[in-house]
Amino acid sequence: MADYAEGHIKRDPATGASAIRTVFPDDESTPQLAAMTWLVATTNVGARHARTSEVEAWDDVYIP
Fold it and tell me: What Cα–Cα distance (Å) separates residue 50 from each residue in 4, 34?
């Protein structure tokens, strides 16, 4: 799994959803925080949090 810096932005080419890397640690030893590693925004269903494994294959839009 890649290590992403806070502010990294990824985009799902299939749905158009965008994800921004949060300050929360990507560490499964704290699963509650790992589940909030990314903030995903969509145009039709609002926002949600996601793990890195959910967005890792998405396109990189911004790399800080």
Answer: 14, 8
CA-to-CA distance for 58 and 33, rounded, in angstroms?
21
Give the angle 51-7-61 at the CA atoms, nearest 5°.
85
Let me know: does 21 contact 11? Beta carbons within 8 Å.
no
Is 21 part of any domain? yes
Q: How far apart are CA 15 and CA 6, in angstroms?
A: 23
pLDDT in tens, 11-57: 999 999 999 999 999 888 899 999 999 999 999 999 999 999 999 99
Count of structural domains, the chain: 1
pTM attached to this predicted model: 0.89
Structure tokens at 1: 């799994």
Confirm whether 3 is domain-assigned: no
